[in-house]
Each structure stands twice: as structure tokens, then as C-alpha cells.
């Protein structure tokens, strides 16, 4: 699925802002989300997620995960956009809620995270009514999640390895914070000297 929900009624998905987050407080009322909330709820399995915080003039990434290390599901919504020629585009957005006091030091909102006991309840869209699952749409309790700073290598999509989950070392942080050397300007070739013989090149 493509990240960023595109409502089914959109005429041209290239002309709308991607909806990557749905606020829990309004998800059941907003035209972009309310049909998906009733009929197309899904889960994104995860063992953690990243958040960035500006400190000392730099955006520093943090890996956030459950204190007990368990896998969880990000509450999410799915929509399939069908184009004029029958083409289909499956899109997804996660649901967010206000952060608990501890997580709010990183960001004031967090993904809604569900544990296995609530998976079936969230995914059951058989009654075409979302009111029964609204109570699930809240952030984790204080102390459920912990976090640590990681390397800014996570900022580049080309990097995809287990090292991105590890706490950053003092040496790595010092290297990342060190001023980057300026690239030297390209040298200009000296003007050609015309010796009167001409040249093919």
C-alpha cells in the first residue's frame, strides 16, 4: 500500500495533500476518513517507530518501542482509489492520539498502538459502525513505551539495517555533530594558448 490515504472521491490523487495521519478526535467525522473508519480498518505490525526532536539546532532521531519489547499494531485506515480507467491505488494512514506526559517530551501526538487482545475488535468491520472501537483510540499509558536516540543514518532511505535501532554512541554523536568539510570549488582550466596551429579539439 502507498503511505498517505487518498479518499475514494478524489478525482486526481496528484492534486491533494497526502493524508498520513488521522486524528483520533475527528476520525469518525472527517469526510476523508469516516468511511474507512467504518469499513476498512487495518493494523500495521511494528516493534517501534521513530520520532525526531530538535536539540541544539539539529533534528535528532529517537527509536520508540514498548518497554516489554512486545510487537504491537498501529491502528490504521485503508482506502482504495479507483481511477477513470479502472486503475486502483491502495493507500493507508495511521491514527494518532494525544501523547502521554512522558512521550510528549518528544512530540505532542503519538500513533494509536494496539496489543493483540484488541486486534480482532479493531479489525471487525462487520456491523458498519465505528462507535464500538472509539474507546481504543488513545495513546499508550505513561511508562508503556521507552526510547533512545539513534544515528542520523535513519534519515536516509538507502540505509536499512539493524544498526538503525541501536542507541547512538558518544563517538557516533560527536562524528555526526562535527562540522562537515566544505567542498572545494571546481578548478577552472587555464585559458588555452593559441599557438597559431589550430586544433580539432
Describe this structure in words.
There is one protein chain. Strand 6 and strand 7 form a beta hairpin. The chain has 201 residues and is mainly beta. Strands 1, 2, 3, 6, 7, 8 and 9 form a 7-stranded mixed β-sheet that branches. Helices cover 11% and strands 29% of the residues. The N and C termini lie far apart (53 Å). The C terminus is likely disordered. The protein has one domain: SOS response associated peptidase-like (hypothetical protein yedk fold), CATH 3.90.1680.10. It is globular, with a radius of gyration of 24 Å.
Give a quick account of the main beta sheet: strands, pairing sense, barrel closure: 7 strands, mixed
Number of strands: 10
- Tell me the CATH superfamily: SOS response associated peptidase-like
The amount of beta strand, in percent, is: 25-35%
Q: Pairing-aware structural class of the strands and helices?
A: mainly beta
CATH level-two architecture: Alpha-Beta Complex
Helicity, in percent? 10-25%
In total, the number of domains comes to: 1
Mean pLDDT: 89
Distance between the termini: 53 Å
What is the molecular shape?
globular
CATH class group = Alpha Beta
Element string (H = helix, E = strand): EEHEEEEEEEHEH
Radius of gyration: 24 Å
Give the helix tally: 3
Detail the poorly predicted runs.
195-201
CATH topology term:
hypothetical protein yedk fold
SSE map:
Blueprint: E1 2-3, E2 21-23, H1 34-39, E3 41-46, E4 49-55, E5 58-66, E6 72-82, E7 88-98, E8 109-111, E9 113-114, H2 116-123, E10 145-149, H3 170-177
Parallel strand pairs: 1-7, 2-7
Antiparallel strand pairs: 3-6, 4-5, 5-10, 6-7, 6-9, 7-8
Amino acid at each position: 500500500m502507498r503511505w498517505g490515504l487518498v479518499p475514494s472521491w478524489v478525482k486526481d490523487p496528484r492534486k491533494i495533500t497526502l493524508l498520513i495521519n488521522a486524528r483520533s478526535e475527528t476520525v469518525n467525522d472527517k469526510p476523508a476518513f469516516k468511511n474507512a473508519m467504518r469499513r476498512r480498518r487495518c493494523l500495521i505490525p511494528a516493534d517501534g517507530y521513530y520520532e525526531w526532536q530538535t536539540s541544539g539546532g539539529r533534528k535528532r532521531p529517537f527509536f520508540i518501542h514498548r518497554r516489554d519489547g512486545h510487537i504491537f499494531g498501529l491502528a490504521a485506515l485503508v482506502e482504495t482509489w479507483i481511477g477513470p480507467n479502472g486503475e486502483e491505488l491502495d493507500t493507508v494512514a495511521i491514527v494518532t492520539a494525544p501523547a502521554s506526559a512522558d512521550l510528549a517530551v518528544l512530540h505532542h501526538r503519538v500513533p494509536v498502538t494496539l496489543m493483540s487482545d484488541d486486534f480482532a475488535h479493531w479489525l471487525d468491520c462487520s456491523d458498519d459502525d465505528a462507535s464500538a472501537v472509539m474507546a481504543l483510540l488513545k495513546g499508550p499509558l505513561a511508562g508503556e513505551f521507552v526510547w533512545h536516540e539513534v544515528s542520523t543514518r535513519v534519515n536516509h532511505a538507502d540505509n536499512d539495517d539493524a544498526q538503525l535501532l541501536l542507541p547512538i554512541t558518544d563517538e557516533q554523536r560527536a562524528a555526526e555533530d562535527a562540522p562537515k568539510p566544505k567542498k572545494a570549488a571546481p578548478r577552472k582550466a587555464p585559458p588555452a594558448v593559441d599557438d597559431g596551429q589550430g586544433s580539432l579539439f
